[in-house]
Amino acid sequence: MPVNQFRISTATCQILLTLLVCAASSAAVAAGNQSEAVARYQAERAACNNGQSNESRPTCLKEAGAALQAARNGGLTSDQNAYNQNAMARCQPLPPDEQDACRRRINGEGTSSGSAQQGGILRELTVPDRK
What we know:
This protein is mainly alpha-helical and 131 residues long. Helix content is 59%, strand content 8%. Mean pLDDT is 80; it is low at 25-31.
């Protein structure tokens, strides 16, 4: 019986090796992201249980679990550009003559006081009267 013989070219070997390395590194990145998400969840859960959250314990635990699930599904990001766009979009419902001051407050002008735990952050900016 004849034995089927074939040769794999050097280029084919290099391509296969590259694909294998890429797959391994993707798996490592995914595992790293998962371990970060689990660590974040454990820290948030501890804050919930210690009363260090600005939410009730059941709500805090529910939110921590939802964030972990979103991270596992790739839906939890910390995209600064998206954050900034969202912040600026909050100025749009204001009257046109107040939108500029709103954008300036978001960009850090003026003073800020308070916290999320205290019920909110108050941002103030003194602007000259337009009369």
